[in-house]
UniProtKB/TrEMBL annotation:
SMART domains in UniProt: HTH_LUXR (SM00421), REC (SM00448)
UniProt source species: Amycolatopsis antarctica
Lineage of the organism: Bacteria, Bacillati, Actinomycetota, Actinomycetes, Pseudonocardiales
Protein name, per record: DNA-binding response regulator
Signal peptide: none
GO biological process annotation, one example: regulation of DNA-templated transcription
PANTHER family: TRANSCRIPTIONAL REGULATORY PROTEIN NARL-RELATED (PTHR43214:SF24), TWO-COMPONENT RESPONSE REGULATOR (PTHR43214)
PTM annotation (4-aspartylphosphate): residues: D52
GO MF terms held by the record: DNA binding
DNA-binding listed as a keyword: yes
Length: 214
């Protein structure tokens, strides 16, 4: 597995690269700006791009804009945003873009190396890894909610799915049986009109619907 890292803070960039190497994940390129990110993903075609939001020259939203452009250049490129900030407009566009392989983690809330590398592998494999605070901020935008048909418990289950939790982890978090979680997820798929296909594919589509909220 190979990744490209785009992070302007040199110590953090080197630290992430070292953590990934310790877990057997190679870094094809490590850059400090959006333009170099685009060049790197085009050249290396990595399994994942790990991108900060604010990078040179203006330190506003260059990273997310570059991530969106990278997905145009390399269709289906998995992207994991690792930032201190939630840049809402571009985040919604990235997370609700209709494809899996997306993540958004907040740097100060990444407290466990194993959980971080698990998120890296999950996003690279086409799944999702979204920090609960990111979900909360995006849900507070007040956009029309297409998920009104879901019960409170089903919405709670879908929120945990968006964080990347497995059925077993969801059951443990909610203190319910594994079968109850499977039933809730089946109801979610049915209410969102997600017809039978690969289970993981429907799971990602449900999460993207949740994050896009229309």
């Amino acid at each position: 597995m190979r990744v490209v890292i785009a992070e302007d803070a040199v110590l953090l960039r080197a630290g992430v690269q070292r953590l990934l190497a310790d877990d057997g994940i190679a870094t094809a390129a490590a850059v400090d700006n959006g333009e170099d990110l685009l060049s790197a993903v085009t050249e290396h075609r990595p399994d994942l791009a790990i991108v900060d939001v604010r990078m040179p020259p203006t330190f506003t939203d260059e990273g997310l804009r570059a991530a969106l452009r990278a997905r145009e250049l390399v269709p289906g490129l998995p992207v994991l945003v690792l930032s201190q900030y939630v840049e809402e407009s571009y985040a919604v566009e990235l997370l609700s873009g209709g494809a899996g392989g997306v993540g958004y983690l907040l740097k100060e809330r990444v407290a466990d190396v194993a959980e971080f590398t698990d998120a890296v592998r999950r996003v690279a494999g086409g799944g999702t890894a979204i920090d609960p605070d990111v979900i909360a901020q995006l849900m507070a935008r007040g956009r029309k909610n297409p998920l009104d048909a879901l019960t409170a418990r089903e919405s709670e289950v879908l929120g945990l799915m968006a964080q990347g939790l497995s059925n077993t982890a969801i059951a443990r978090t909610l203190v319910v049986s594994h079968g109850a979680v499977e039933k809730h997820i089946g109801n979610i798929f049915a209410k969102l009109g997600l017809e039978a296909s690969a289970v993981e594919h429907r799971r990602v589509r449900a999460v993207l619907t949740y994050l896009g909220r229309g």
